[in-house]
């Protein structure tokens, strides 16, 4: 029997530095930046406190290029992805570890103060690209959707009704 687990991270915070866009030896774009998130709470004595956490974030491929071009220090951003820990051993012989959030979705939030504007004040969103279906597939999907949404003479079994 398979066991299930979840590795999902969702953040909304501000960039602490400008993104660093680089390319691997094979020419694959990779962008790294840091997001700060804060949590507020009140102590039992009634004192307000704030704690800020800094998260290392990495984006790959087309999303990396979008992040590198669109984001800047201070920009509020929504990012979701997974945790990944890398390890390496430099010349000093001490094994090092770094935990990062590898994102697969990013939405730039709030006003863009970096000189770029968003259309109609809408947030700028980036998701992994999916291959676009050809026109015949689009028509077929539309027809299936229309067929499924038309009221029919379908017989409903009372046992299928959940109440």
From TrEMBL:
<dbReference type="InterPro" id="IPR012340">
    <property type="entry name" value="NA-bd_OB-fold"/>
</dbReference>
<protein>
    <recommendedName>
        <fullName>Single-stranded DNA-binding protein</fullName>
    </recommendedName>
</protein>
<comment type="subunit">
    <text>Homotetramer.</text>
</comment>
<dbReference type="GO" id="GO:0009295">
    <property type="term" value="C:nucleoid"/>
</dbReference>
<dbReference type="InterPro" id="IPR011344">
    <property type="entry name" value="ssDNA-bd"/>
</dbReference>
<keyword id="KW-0238">DNA-binding</keyword>
<dbReference type="GO" id="GO:0003697">
    <property type="term" value="F:single-stranded DNA binding"/>
</dbReference>
<feature type="compositionally biased region" description="Basic and acidic residues">
    <location>
        <begin position="121"/>
        <end position="149"/>
    </location>
</feature>
<dbReference type="InterPro" id="IPR000424">
    <property type="entry name" value="Primosome_PriB/ssb"/>
</dbReference>
<dbReference type="GO" id="GO:0006260">
    <property type="term" value="P:DNA replication"/>
</dbReference>
<feature type="region of interest" description="Disordered">
    <location>
        <begin position="109"/>
        <end position="163"/>
    </location>
</feature>
<dbReference type="Pfam" id="PF00436">
    <property type="entry name" value="SSB"/>
</dbReference>
């Amino acid at each position: 029997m398979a066991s299930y687990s979840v590795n999902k991270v969702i953040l909304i915070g501000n960039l602490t530095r400008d993104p660093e866009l680089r390319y691997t030896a094979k020419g694959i774009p990779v962008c790294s930046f840091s997001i700060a998130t804060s949590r507020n709470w009140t102590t039992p004595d009634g004192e307000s406190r704030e704690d800020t956490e800094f998260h290392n974030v990495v984006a790959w491929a087309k999303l990396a290029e979008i992040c590198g071009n669109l984001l800047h220090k201070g920009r509020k951003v929504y990012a979701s992805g997974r945790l990944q820990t890398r390890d390496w051993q430099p010349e000093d012989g001490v094994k090092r570890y770094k935990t990062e959030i590898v994102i697969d979705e990013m939405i730039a939030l709030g006003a863009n103060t970096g000189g770029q504007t968003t259309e109609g004040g809408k947030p700028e969103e980036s998701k992994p690209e999916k291959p676009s279906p050809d026109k015949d597939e689009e028509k077929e999907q539309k027809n299936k959707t229309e067929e499924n949404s038309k009221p029919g003479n379908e017989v409903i079994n009372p046992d299928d009704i959940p109440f």
